[in-house]
Amino acid sequence: MVRGTETENLEMAIQAARIAVNKTPKRHTDRAQRLTELGILLANRYSTTNAMPDLEEVIQVKSQSIDITPKALHDPERAKALNNISYGLLQKYKSTNVLTDLEEAINLGREATDATPNGYLNWEIILERLGIGLYQRYLRVGTMADLEEAIRLARNKWDLDNGINSFQEVVDAAPRHGLIWVCALRRLCYLYDERFCFTGDLGDLKMVLQLYQDLVDGTPKNHPDRAARLERLGSLKKVRFVTFGNMADIETAIQLFQEAADITHRNSPIRADYLKSLGAAHHAKYDTTRNLVDLEVAFQVYRDAVDTCLDDRLLTATLGCLGQAYLEKYEIMEAKTDFEGAVQSFENALDSESQDSPGRTMRLADLALCYMKGYIKVGTATYVNMAARLLQDAVNATPADHPGHSSIFSVLAYCYEVKYNRTKSNSDLEAAIASYSEAFWDSPGDTIGQSLEVAKRLVSTLILSKNWHEAWCIVCEAIPMIRGMTPRFLENSERQALLSQHSGFASDAAAATLSVGREPIEAIQHLEEGRVVAAVGMNELRISVSRLSHFRPEVGKKFLSLRDQLETPLGGSMTSTELYEEGESALRKLTRHLDASRKLDSLISDFRARTRSLIFPVAPDEIDSSRATTGGPIVVINVSYRCDAFLFVEEGLRVLPLPTISREGIEKRAREGNFGRRSVLEWLWENITGPILDALGFTEPPLHDRWPHVWWIPTGPLSRFPLHAAGRHTKKSNETVIDRVMSSYSPSIRSVLQGYGLRHQESTSASKQVLIVAMEDTPGSKSLPFATEEAAVIREVFCKSTSFELIEPDRRKEDVLLHLRDCYIFHFAGHGYTDVKDPSQSHLRLENWKDNPLRVADLLEINLCERPPFLAYLSACGTGRIEGKEYLDESIHLITACQLAGFRHVIGTLWEVRDEICVDITRITYEGIRDGGMTDESVCRGLHNATRQLRDRWLSTPVDTGRASRLSSKENRFLGEHDSGDRSVSYSDPRDDRLSRDIIACDEEEEAELLHWVPYVHFGV
Questions:
Q1: What CA–CA distance (Å, rounded) separates 1019 from 895?
Q2: What is the pLDDT of residues 184-199, one digit of tens each?
Q3: At 991, phi and psi to the nearest 5?
C-alpha cells in the first residue's frame, strides 16, 4: 500500500500536470509530451486504486497525446504509446466485457505493429498483446481466423527458445525484486507459459510454476494484477495435481483461487471466472477423494459463478462444469433429478454457442457423453440414439486441425464401445475401432499421456476383434512412448503417478506380439520397455562411478557432476523467497536441475553407443539370452488376454503357452486373498510352475545338493502369488518348486543383468558391520516378543563365528539411515506397513514412525552403490506387497527400494508373517550364509533351506496337534487373548493406535490351512 505522504505527493503531481496541460495550447509542440506525463502519473494512481475511472482517464489522456503526435513511418515512440493504449483497453475489457473496447484494442495493436521498426526491443511485447487481443476475441466471437492469427503471431514473434534464454540471463543477473528483474521475470513467465501450452512439456510446467510463484511472491497485495496472477498460479497447481496426484497441490490451488475471488470486487465480471476455477479445483479434489463434500462445494461455487457471470463465453464454460458435477453425482446416487440437471446444464451450454463456434463440438460431445452415462445406468435406447446423433454432429463440425479433434473421436469411440458391450454387435465394435484409430493417428498435438491412453483403448478393442496385426502396429508405436513420459528431472512420486496410468499395457503389447506371430524376444522387449521404467531410470544414476571412470575418466567426472546436480534437493515446500535467502534462487536451482537431466540423457546415450559395457542397464533391444542365464534360467510369466511363460535358458528363448489360466481368473483369486493356502499352492503348481519346471527339465529333486537356480519374473496380478512355494506338499511328494529348484525373484530381466554385471566384483565396502533394528515394542503397534530373540540369534549364529560387528543404533529413522551407509548387512525385525494408495509411502516402523517413518521414498533417495551393502533382511510383514493393481508393473515396494538403494540381496515377505516363525527362518538362513562363505548364492540357498526345513517340520506335525503353528506360551504372555503375533499393521489407517492384524481374522479351519513358511522371498543377484 502507498503511504499517505506518497499518495499526497502523487495527487499534487497529477494536479500540477493537469494545470500544465490545460495551460498548454492545443497546437503547442509541448502539449503531447505534457499529456504523456499526465498519463504516466494517472497510470501510477490506477496501479494502486484499480479504479475504473482512473483507467478510463489514462486511456483518454494517452489517446489525446497520440492524436496530436505527427505520424512517422517506423516510429518506436508512437508504437510504444499505441501499445500502451491497447493494453489499457484490454484491461478495461477484462472488467467491462464490452466488445467495442476489445475491438479498439486490436486495431491499436495492429497500428503499433505497423509503426514498430525492425529490431525494436519491445517488438515481442507488442506482438504478444495483439495476440492476446485476437485470442480473447476468438473466445468471445468464435472466429477461427482470430485463433489462427494469434497462433501465428505467437510462433512468429521472438523465437520462444531464444526469448527464454535471453530473459533467463536477465533474471539471473538483475537485482532481485528490482524493476528490471520484475519486468524480465514477467516476460519469462509468459514465454514459458506459452511454450508449455503449446508442447505440454513437464519441464516447462515445472519452470512456469516456479516463475509464477516468484511473480506472486513479488506482487504487492494491492497490485491490480495480483488476482490474475493468483488465478494462473492456481491453474498451474491444478494441472500438476491432475498430472501427478499430489494433494498438497490441489489444496494450494483452492487457497489461491479463493484469494483471487476474495480480493476481486463482487461486481467485477472477472470474479465469476475465478469462482469457476475454484469450483473446478474442488471438483478435481473430489475425483481423487471421492468425498461427496468436495463435490457439493464444487456445486455451490459453480452455481455462484453462473449467477454472477456477465460473460457469455464464461457462462458457457461454467454451465459445462456444472453439468459435469451433476453427472458425477448421478453416477453415484442414481437420482433422476441429477441426470436431468446434467442434461439441462449441457443443453444450456450448447444453446449459448453459435453454429460456427469452435467450442460447439465439445458441448455436443459433453451432452452426448451425458446421454451415454444415462444409457449405461438404465439401458434406454433413446439415450444411445440421442448420443449417436449428437456425436455425429460433433464429428461433422470437427476439422482435422481442431484442438479438440482427438477428444471428440475418443468420446465417439467410447460410446460405440459402451454400446458394443450391451449389443455385442460387430458393427459397433468396428465403429469404436475406427474412431479410436482416428483419435490416435491423426492427433499430433496430443501429449504423450493422451496418446498412450487412446492407444490402450484402441488395443483393447482390437483384441476384442482379434485384429492382432493392427494391435501389434499400435503397440510398436505406443510402447516406446512410456519412457519418454518420465524424464529424469521428475521426482520418484511423480514418475510413479504417471506410470501407474498405463499399468498392464506392456503385457497386452507382449501378448499381441505373440498373437501376430512375431519372435518371442520382441515380446520381451515390449515388456522390458513398458514395465519397471522408473527403476531403470534410477539404476542408470546408481551405477558405480569408479567403474565408469575406469572406462572413460572424463565421462565419469562429468557423470558425477551431472548426477549431483540432478539429485540435489530443490527445497521441498519452501517458498522461493526462503530458498533465495539460503543462497541460490529456487529458479536457478530448477534451471540447472532440468539442464542436468537433458545432459545426462545425452551422456548415457553416447556411452552406450560407444561400449557394450553393463555399467548402465542395457536397452531392451540389447538383451542377450546367453548373458541373461549366467546364473540359471529366467522365467517371465506374462498375464494378459493370453498367458505365456518366456523361458530364458542357455540355449536361447522359448515360449510356453499357459492355456489353463486367465487374467480374470488370477484377479479373482487375488481378490480372495489368503495366498498361503494349500489349495492356492496346488493351483499354482498344476497350472503354472509345474508345466514350467517340466519344460525346463527340472522333473526330480537334484542330486548331491546341486540346486538349480530359477529367477521368477511374474507380471500383473500374478506378482502377488508365491510361485516359489507352489506344489503338492505331502510327505512323499516331489511335485513342488522347493523340492526341485531354489528360487529368486526380479522385477525385470534388466535387473538380473545388472546384478550379473556386479556379481563377481569385490565389494568396495570395508565395513564389517551388521546393523540390526529389533522393534519388540513399537508405538501404536502390537508387541513382537520374538524380535529381540531374532537379534540374539544373529549375534549367536553369525557374528560370533565371523569377523562382523553387531551394531544396534537408536531406533529412529535418522539414526538408521546414517548407519545404513556403513553397514554390510541390515536386518530389520519389526512391523511393516503397506500403503494401498501410494506405494512410496509404505514404510518400516521405528520409534518415531508417526512423525517420520522410514518410507520407500526415503530408501529411493539414498545411493549406496559406491560401497554396496551385501544384504537387507526385512523381517516384517508385506515388505514385497503391492495392493493397488495400477502399481504392479513398476514393482515399487520396500524390497525393491532396498535393491535400488544399492543392496545386492534383499530378503523380504509377500504378506503377513508369524513373529516366532521369523526367528527360525532367520537362524537357518544366516547359518546358510555363514556356511556358504557369504557368496551371492549363499543368500538364496540359505533362505531356500530355511523354507524347506520349516515346510518339512510342518508336514511332520500331526494336524490335530497344531500344524498351523500355534502361538507359544511365551508369545501368549506378551499378547492379549485376541492378538495375533503378526508383524503387520492395517493398511487402512496408518496412525490408528489399535491397528488390526489382517490375516488372523479367520476361524480355526482357515488358520489350519495357512502355511506360515510360504511368504519369505529373495530378490538379488
A1: 7
A2: 888 888 888 888 887 7
A3: -115, 15
Q: How many helices (H) and strands (E) does the chain have?
A: 44, 14
The 3-state secondary structure of 177-216, one letter per residue: CCHHHHHHHHHHHHHHHHHHHHHCCHHHHHHHHHHHHHHH
Q: 503385457: which residue's cell? A: 507
User: Does the structure show a pLDDT above 80 at 912?
Assistant: yes
pLDDT in tens, 477-495: 999 999 988 999 999 899 9
Task: Confirm if 621 and 525 have CB atoms less than 8 A apart.
Answer: yes
Residues 730-760, buried b or exposed e (16+ Cβ, 10 A)? eeeeebbbbbbbbbbbbbbbbbbbbbbbbee
Instruction: Indicate the pairing of strand 832-833 with strand 843-844.
Output: antiparallel
Listed residue (946, 717, 912) closest to 832, CA to CA: 912
Which of 95, 92, 132, 93 has the alpha carbon at shortest distance from 112? 132
**Apex CA 312: angle with CA 307 and CA 313, to 5°?**
115
One-letter amino acid at 757 equals G
CA distance 761 to 928: 21
Give the DSSP H or E segment for 635: strand 634-639
Question: How far is Cα of residue 862 from the mean position of the Cα atoms in its chain?
Answer: 20
Residue for grid cell 506397513: 833
Contact 768, 824 (CB under 8 A): yes
Give the DSSP letter string of 939-999.
Answer: HHHHHHHHHHHHHHHHHHS-GGGTTTTPPPHHHHHHS-TT---BSB--SS-TT-SS---ST
The residues pairing with 390 across neighbouring beta strands, listed in sequence order, are none
**Percent of the chain at pLDDT above 70?**
87
Give every CB contact of residue 1010 below 8 A, 6+ residues apart in sequence. Answer: 674, 676, 677, 964, 999, 1002
Task: Starting at the earlier edge strand, list the strands of the sheet with 769-774.
Answer: 652-657, 643-649, 634-639, 709-714, 742-745, 1016-1020, 905-909, 871-875, 825-829, 769-774, 805-807
Question: What is the pTM for the complete model shown?
Answer: 0.83
φ and ψ at 842, to 5 degrees?
-60, 145
For residues 245 and 497, the answer to whether their CB atoms sit within 8 Å is yes
Cα-based distances in Å from 94 to 88, 111, 151, 272, 671: 10, 21, 21, 12, 55
Read off the C-alpha cell for 747.
522385477
Torsion of CA 103, 106, 107, 109, to 10 degrees: 160
Q: What is the pLDDT of residues 514-571, one digit of tens each?
A: 999 999 999 999 999 999 999 988 888 887 777 777 777 888 889 889 988 888 776 5
What is the Cα–Cα distance from 646 to 510, expressed in whole angstroms? Answer: 11
Closest CA to 478 of 442, 441, 515: 441
